[in-house]
Amino acid sequence: MGCVEEMDYEILLKNTSFKECREFVTSNFKEVYKVKPGYRMFEVYLIGVPPVMIGVDGDHVIFPYTKPCYGTFLLRIRGEEAIAALREGGGV
């Protein structure tokens, strides 16, 4: 994988908070994983207020992504490998 910005992604929430991302993920997705800040996915380390919630929707991963100077976004990206890692115990 490469830089998140170079991937095909959908923005579900923009200019949001970690709390809003966590609530959105837990309210809208059945398969949810808790990870610690610093969890690596798509060659980036996730930051946030613990726990960082990651949702799975089919073959897509939903997670908060913070871009310095631009804020926090909730993204939806295709990620079979990331999902496999989460299912194999990559979460908290």
Question: Would you kindly provide a written description of the structure presented here, covering whatever features stand out?
Answer:
- The chain is 24% helix and 42% strand.
- By secondary structure, it is of the alpha+beta class.
- The strands form two sheets. It has a five-stranded antiparallel beta sheet, sandwiched between helices. A two-stranded antiparallel ribbon has the order 3-4.
- Strand 3 and strand 4 form a beta hairpin.
- The longest helix is centred in the N-terminal third of the chain and has 11 residues.
- It starts with 8 loop residues before the first strand and ends with a helix.
Give the tags.
92 residues; globular; 7 strands; single chain; two-stranded antiparallel ribbon; alpha+beta
How is this structure best summarized?
The chain is α+β, with helices and mostly antiparallel strands and 92 residues long. Helices cover 24% and strands 42% of the residues. The chain has one domain (4-90).
Number of helices: 2
Category by helix and strand content: alpha+beta
Instruction: Using the CA coordinates, give the radius of gyration.
Output: 12 Å
- Bin the strand percentage: 35-45%
Gap between N and C termini: 23 Å
Please give the share of residues in helix: 10-25%
Strands, count: 7
What gross morphology would you assign? Answer: globular
Mean pLDDT: 90
Poorly predicted spans: none
Main beta-sheet strand count, sense and barrel state: 5 strands, antiparallel
How many structural domains does the protein architecture include?
1
In spatial order, strands of the major sheet run 1-7-6-5-2
* N-to-C SSE string, H for helix and E for strand: EHEEEEEEH
